[in-house]
Write a structure and sequence with these properties.
alpha+beta, PmbA/TldD fold, 6-stranded antiparallel beta sheet, 5-stranded mixed barrel, 17 strands, 21% helix
Length: 438
């Protein structure tokens, strides 16, 4: 289905809803393609391919709201689908805060090309995809007697969407992604250390096509002999690729739904200092080739570059139309785009060298954070640092504390920004973290 055909069908569905009882409506039509191959023991273990199309309609009927989706896109089938959806909506409770966004907040077009789509997506040879997975496996098969198992996969995906609303929005978006991933396990005494490594890209010709196997094996071998060390309070250096896991609760705490429902430790903290001076984060939707880049959000609201934390001061909540009305705040988009952390001056080696005794965290294993209080407990793995050097692997340890204190204890950010993610963070050094071990 072409973009023009999707627009035609979406407008027809919207108008049909308006003619049959809805006062407002929003319709999105999307299509997606994806493929993946996983190889193990020099054989294809899994091969998948999917093509999907769907229509998603949001209905506002007599002060009531509902949302519905279907993969049946023929008009004669949609007539019944929409009519039944409208009738069902009439049985719901009224919700005065449910409306479409104000038209002046919509994206009006004319934005720059963010290069989120590989125009040659359909031209990638399927055999080449399979060969890449086998190539990753062959990088390490037979190279180390400690290797127990290796699993390598290639994956890709394409998503395209058009959206129209009854109060004037029209917009389309498209994005693609490619990836390679290798997981390994090795012999390590009574344990079987495991590790993985992946590479990803928006465009196929930019995808790094080697190294996932050798990197995954190297990281697994480094874990051999990992054990608990004595409990204590010490610096914690968190690797850039896992910082997002640790700070996820912070971003959830500034979401409009969490704020309105009082399920956030950052309620009523706008323009207050909630973190170290070292923390400056910007939400930038306009990075060309950025993983989270977009010109409008899921409601059609125009995206804007905005400050989230400025030298530790909280500057912004994520507010969509619904929670904006409940909180009496201006909607600004209810989700993140590209979170850009202001980097420091030291690379990862420099950060390690600055620590007399601490732990370099390379992974989190389970745990949770209480959204209301910020209290957390996470399992960690990584390496003990002594006198500025990594001396041995550690595992089966926990960190406990409170997110407010953790943010206040940010000591330094590295220069090693992770650019292949929508969370563009460097490695971060936290002071005075409580570790539980022996």
């Amino acid at each position: 289905m072409t973009k023009e055909e999707k627009y035609t069908l979406a407008k027809w569905a919207m108008n049909h809803a308006l003619e049959n009882g809805a006062q407002q409506a929003s319709v999105s039509i999307s299509n997606s393609q994806s493929s993946s191959v996983e190889v193990r023991e020099e054989k294809i273990d899994k091969l998948e391919q999917a093509i999907q199309r769907s229509l998603y309609i949001r209905l506002f009927v007599d002060g009531k709201y509902s949302a519905h989706s279907t993969s049946r896109l023929k008009e004669q089938e949609l007539v019944r689908f929409i009519n039944e959806a409208i009738e069902g909506t009439k049985f719901l409770s009224e919700d005065e805060f449910r409306t479409l966004p104000a038209p002046e907040l919509y994206y009006k077009g004319g934005g720059k090309n963010l290069e989120s789509l590989d125009e040659n997506f359909a031209l990638v040879d399927p055999k080449e995809k399979i060969d890449l997975a086998f190539k990753a496996e062959k990088e390490i098969l037979g190279t180390d007697e400690r290797l127990i198992s290796v699993s390598c996969s290639y994956y890709d995906g394409l998503n395209e969407r058009v959206m129209v609303t009854s109060n004037g929005f029209e917009g389309h978006s498209a994005n693609s992604h490619y990836g390679l991933h290798t997981s390994v396990s090795v012999k390590g005494g009574d344990a079987r250390p495991e590790s993985s490594w992946g590479e990803s890209s928006i465009k196929y010709d930019k995808l790094k096509k080697d190294g996932t196997g050798t990197t995954a094996l190297k990281k697994a071998i480094e874990k051999i002999g990992a054990e608990k060390i004595e409990s204590g309070t010490m610096p914690m250096l968190v690797e850039n690729r896992v910082v997002g896991r640790l700070l996820g609760p912070v971003m959830e705490a500034i979401n409009g739904s969490s704020i309105q429902q009082k399920n956030s430790f950052l309620v009523a903290k706008l323009d207050e200092k909630v973190a170290s001076n070292q923390l400056t984060v910007t939400d930038d939707p306009f990075i060309v080739g950025g993983r989270g880049s977009r010109l409008f959000d899921g409601e059609g609201l125009a995206t804007k570059k905005r400050s989230i934390f400025d030298k530790g001061v909280l500057k912004c909540y994520y507010i969509d139309t619904y929670y904006g009305k409940k909180l009496e705040m201006e909607p600004n988009g209810g989700s993140t785009t590209n979170l850009v952390f202001e980097p420091g001056n030291k690379d990862l080696d420099g950060l390690v060298a600055s620590i007399q005794k601490g732990i370099f965290v390379t992974g989190f294993n389970g745990g949770n954070c209480n959204g209301s209080t910020g209290d957390f407990s996470y399992g960690i793995e990584g390496f003990l640092i002594e006198n500025g050097k990594l001396v041995k692997p550690v595992a089966e340890m926990n960190i406990t504390g409170n997110m407010m204190k953790l943010m206040a204890n940010i000591g330094e950010l590295g220069s090693d920004i992770k650019t292949d993610s929508s969370v563009r963070t460097p490695s971060i050094l936290f002071n005075d973290v409580d570790f539980s071990g022996l």
